[in-house]
UniProtKB/TrEMBL annotation:
Coiled coil segments of this chain: none
Signal peptide as annotated in the record: 1-22
Protein's recorded name: Ig-like domain-containing protein
Top-level lineage group: Eukaryota
Pfam families: Ig_CD22
Species of origin: Salmo trutta
PANTHER family: B-CELL RECEPTOR CD22-RELATED (PTHR46013:SF4), VASCULAR CELL ADHESION MOLECULE 1 (PTHR46013)
Length: 351
């Protein structure tokens, strides 16, 4: 099993013990038969097939049948149409790729092929079972006699035994395993991500009680037009009374000051007159807290993070934030009624 990224998208390639389903020269090989992967990622269902004679005239994957009991090709299913591709580089390769995975994609996937021979059609049963999950920290007691807690990162065991990254109070910790054992402190929160795919991370979770330090971003990705105004928001909790807070961009902080300390965007000359903060200014809980950037420029495309300080604590700087894309390109969407009457035209940013 290997992991790699395409842009910011996790792509899962899977190799394991092959399962051959068929008879008399007809077979479909799924590798493996069960997969658990992340919402928002890309998965490949590895598959190959054989047949005794003739020429293959049609191949497709499906998860359901129509009202007449006929399999519905994923390529014709509106829920999948723009998100599925088949490998056709090699003969008898039926590998399926699904992008931008959704929780509704959790299903059993089967491959079917048809030849020019009489009765020459075959479906590989029982297929591949796909589970789709969000990353979510689950906290359980380490043992009945220990105060330690065990943290796991996903609701199902992700295929391929990936490497995890753990964040404690917004800062990366060194242990990259799941499950992960910690000694709980009421102030501590933990989040997790997959290595090399940190933008798909879990919300921060308290390991003891309900009140702890944490930051939750309203949106992880935003695409807007050049010249417009954008609001980037988060909610946050400081275990102690919050004394100060700010928004920063790791890209800007690194190039502008060459320091590891985050720099307040309101003090960056590149944002002068274009940045303002909105949010409550006192107390332990603050949120939503909003960064507003006006007159957007393409060079404003970056990741934006929020941090805060209390009398005894500072939220770490390595927890992923919100990624902003600013573009001058637009996509024209046409919405029609019965495919005859044009109802609406509008321009949307194309990122």
């Amino acid at each position: 099993m290997a992991l790699r990224t395409a842009g910011s998208v996790l792509v899962v390639f899977l190799w394991s013990v092959a399962v051959v389903l068929g008879q008399d020269g007809w077979s479909v090989t799924y590798t493996p038969q069960s997969i658990c992967t992340l919402k928002g990622s890309t998965v490949e269902l590895t598959c190959s097939y054989t047949y005794p004679r003739g020429t293959v005239t049609s191949t497709f994957w499906f998860t359901k049948n129509d009202a007449e009991g006929n399999p519905v090709s994923l390529s014709d299913d509106p829920d999948y149409k723009a998100r599925v591709t088949y490998h056709k580089d090699n003969k008898n390769d039926c590998t399926l790729r699904i992008t931008d995975l959704r929780e509704s994609d959790a299903a059993t996937y089967k491959f079917r092929f048809i030849t020019d021979q009489t009765g020459g059609r075959f479906t590989g049963n029982p297929g591949v079972t796909l589970s789709v999950t969000d990353l979510q920290v689950q906290v359980t007691p380490y043992s009945v006699v220990s105060a330690w807690k065990t943290l796991t990162c996903a609701t199902c065991v992700l295929t391929g035994d990936p490497t995890y990254i753990w964040y404690k109070n917004g800062q990366i910790v060194t242990d990259n395993t799941s499950p992960y054992s910690v000694y709980p402190d009421a102030a501590d929160s933990y989040s997790c991500a997959l290595k090399a795919n940190e933008d798909l991370h879990s919300p921060a979770v308290c390991v003891q009680g309900q009140d702890c330090s944490r930051v939750t971003y309203t949106k992880r990705r935003i695409c807007v037009l050049k010249g417009s105004t954008v609001d980037i928001s988060c909610t946050y909790v400081g275990y102690d009374t919050v004394t100060s807070s700010l928004w920063f961009s790791p890209k800007r902080s690194a190039s502008w000051t060459n320091k590891l300390t985050p720099e307040d965007l309101t003090r960056d000359p590149g944002y002068a007159g274009r940045v303002e903060y909105a949010g409550r200014e006192s107390g332990t809980y603050k949120g939503p807290f909003t960064l507003r950037i006006s007159d957007l420029r393409e060079e404003d495309s970056a990741e934006y993070r929020f941090t805060f300080k209390t009398y005894n604590f500072e939220w770490g700087h390595s927890f992923p934030g919100t990624t902003l894309s600013v573009t001058g390109n637009t996509t024209l969407y046409d919405t029609t009624v019965y495919h005859i009457e044009l109802q609406e035209k509008k321009n949307e940013p194309s990122c």
